[in-house]
Amino acid sequence: MWRLPKSSFSFSSLRKLILTRDISGSASSPSLSIWRRKKEMSKESLMVAKELKRLQSHPVRFDRFIKSHVSRLLKSDLVSVLAEFQRQDQVFLCMKLYDVVRKEIWYRPDMFFYRDMLMMLARNKKVVEAKQVWEDLKREEVLFDQHTFGDIIRAFLDSGLSSEAMFIYHEMRSSPDPPISLPFRVILKGLIPYPEFREKVKDDFLKLFPDMIVYDPPEDLFEDQEWRRESDEE
Length: 234
Description:
Layout: H1 11-28, H2 43-55, H3 59-68, H4 75-87, H5 91-103, H6 111-123, H7 127-139, H8 146-158, H9 162-173, H10 181-190, H11 195-208, H12 219-233
């Protein structure tokens, strides 16, 4: 709690105190996101998670349980259940709770909420669901920072979803957030199996950061990665 000094009080000192509080609050606001806090599960959230997994193959009972129990969960419990399902790669349950969260009165669009959803969907190669989530975040005008863009793009690349990754890369390039070098390096490493896409990103990188060097792996590595990708597709 902020308290005024007992001595030498003035309106100028009060104004300075308020400005200091506002600046420090703004600087630390990312750490206040509920989606970044440690998500410990209570007994009630554990019970709800277990029951949702049991009922997911019974649509009518599942929807009834959502309305009767999930909608009554505390905010912290609902967040922890969603986080646990993301950890377990329970796509169906994650999408159901994703819809529930966005209807809650306390819900506010949040970069980390969308980041976690997209990372989970990328791991599981769920393109249709990822497009839905992306359309939602665009409607809600959620802006990713450059590091988050890099992490999400790399997740899609690591799952072999190169077209989706490059779509998000173009979104990154049009972002108002100033470009920084590290996310580009993360993306370039993930693009090793995709030489044509990699050349495009490499050209952008060198234009943005002309004094930096990009390490190019040997050409035979590109050929080996291409062979592996074709084998996986077969």
